[in-house]
Fold these 2 entries.
Entry 1:
Amino acid sequence: MTNRNSKQHNEIGMIGLGVMGRNFLLNVADHGFLVAGYDKDVSKVEALRRESKERNIQGAENIHEFIELLRKPRAIIMLVPAGAPVDSVIKDLLPHLDKGDLIIDAGNSYFKDTDLRADNLAVKGIHFLGVGVSGGEEGARHGPSIMPGGSKEAYERVRPIFEATAAKVNNLPCVTYLGPGSAGHFVKMVHNGIEYAMMQLLSETYDLMKRGLGLNDDQLHDVYNKWNNGELNSYLMEITGKIFSKVDEKTNKRLIDEILDVARQKGTGMWTSQSAMELQVPIPTIDLAVAMRDMSVYKNQRESAGKVLQWPMLIFKDNQNTFLNQLRHALYTGMIITYAQGMALLTVASDKYNYNLDLEAVARIWRGGCIIRAGLLEDIQNAFHTRNDLPNLLLDPDLSKKIIENQEHLRYIVCRGAELGVPVPALMSSLSYLDAYRSSWLPANLIQAQRDYFGAHTYERIDSKGTFHTEWEKK
Ligand code: 6PG
């Protein structure tokens, strides 16, 4: 390593010293790399300096100073909010860069923006990587899951840094080169779509247990903790259990009950649904998860509607333990179906956008560090190991066996939700997805007939090739 007193010695630079950027920089420095950080907000640079202590980190207060601290050819990571801030940072950087320098966008950028930026920068001789980073503040600091996409050659330059800083599962880093262009940001987007669906599924089990069974926060804490010790083991399950025991410092009551029931979003779930619609891949559980965040925002209307559109909120009377057991199986089934939808989207996108994704590798790097890490991902990795062109996880022999064994519980829970009047759209849509996917016949012939009836859109026949039109009103 170069002497830290010389200028232009740092192996990598970071722009954007918010919590994620600063934590990731500290993580990189902890692994012995020389790093420099820059943020327009001087207080963030000062915060970095305070936290740096004896580490190999230098902070810069302007872009010129920052560029001077980097070894050539330069490698610069940016961790700034998606959208305009990314373009603004690139614009500020460009006059200071030379051909062969590398910019890495490690934020949650929209994948089409990533393709555009990569093309524009390539013309100027600047390399660009679109890299998904998952794991929140803690992950960034101690080991995230990293999803890189772009030029393989550019990736090789930073591979040692990513492999050192990523989470490890079975001693393997949760990072691998995923594919060209926007492959990394597309995979991260779908990761977030799955994250939305898992959070919605968990919220529905919470609702069923709170309003349906009348469980209190202590009981909910116990249930989620118990579930986390079995086949449902996952990061989101773990934090859900912990959430129910957290006491609010202000009121001394449980914090969960002081939080307004309005969910916010930054857009990655919506992008997943939009992309799936564009590619004509059904991902209804993820769609519903986005829709339910949208529904939560209509708090005032929901309050008014509740007074008019009444249905007696029944409390479940039968055996609670049996119900909880069935709920656990139903949630597990919903989780498998959610992953199946996300992976099916990646399969089609890989083909359409020439990402050439290795889905076994995607499942592997999601097993540690990221928000959707779950025991189930080992089965998913195995499924793609057995058959790397598996079109849908529901066709994997082991996972389909689990679905067959558990589906009755999902059916039971969906019926109870409908009876009680507790909304369980993610569980319901998972079940409907399953039933549709296993239906060799669907009533789409009626839709074709209707289209042809009112718009002469034609239809295909089961007994001959070609397209046909009927004069439906002709006697
Ligand atoms: C992650 C998270 C992270 C972010 C979400 C939150 O993988 O670490 O997904 O990227 O916390 O984007 O998204 P919403 O604000 O849309 O819920």
Entry 2:
Amino acid sequence: MTTKVILTRKIPKVAFDILKKQAGVKIISWDNEEPIERKTFLEYANKNPDCAGILCMLTDKIDEELLSKLNKNKLKVVSTMSVGHDHIDKQACKKYGIKVGYTPGVLTNSTSDLAVTLLLAAARRLKESSDAAINGEWTTWKPEWLLGKEVYGSTVGIIGLGRIGSAFAKRMHHGFDCKILYSDVSEKDFAKDFNGKFVDLDTLLAESDFVVPHCDLNSKTKEMCNLEFFKKMRKDAIFINTTRGDVVKQDDLLTALQNNIISYAGIDVTVPEPLPTNHPLLKQKNCIVLPHIASSTRKCRNDMATLAVNNLLLGIQGKNLLKEVGLD
Ligand code: DGY
């Protein structure tokens, strides 16, 4: 008897090989670098109602419409190759007894490294500086040209102190002697590793040179960073986001940047993704936009894919997953 699984993207070979070698597993695969179209995904589900597992990406919506095409008694697991799981309707999965696997931990280092990179790039105006070198604006060394913000010894405010927030805080504290403020705790114990000070959000916004959300996207954090939020930040402060675009009310971020309510932003996540190439944020001098690359190191993507495959395989066997989203 074969067990069917749907795979919604081409994944790193090291992980695909584990799946391929599993006896009795039939892989229905969208073998492409680009996301599966919704229509095609629904067709895959329609044609394979007996599938036992889905390995998906953060770009694939797993909702009632999709689950309704499948035999919920057969479908045991949805395993996402991401730490974020806001694209999955957890209530629906809970209702049908479907386990949800995700990939926390393995992307903590690469994601926090990228947050530091983005912070430094924004503070030191790397995009403008590189453009100036390319465009011939670099006439000579000038005492007051392209002046940025000093990072060493600055105050960094982190909203959401989980695994990634803490890894980021450690880098900023031990590497740059930054004072760390945090609010919205998930793991308060972590704070002793970097002498972090817990403060309310308003204090964090008022005192930080750099404001950096590291929280999940959920109903409480959706569009949390709005105009009111930006107005509470210092005028010379910089906003960095590597979490989810929806944590930010993007039009308000644009307004804040256009009107110098804050000085600069560095963002790795947007709404939508990709951001249309004519989007005004891409034209803002005081904004660096990256194409959601926080976890994109070879090691990290191999580890994410391997963990997602192992979660999938455990799930279809009815076993506990290595990393399972709590559905309470
Ligand atoms: C995730 O895993 O949720 C990240 O956004 C991927 O980079």
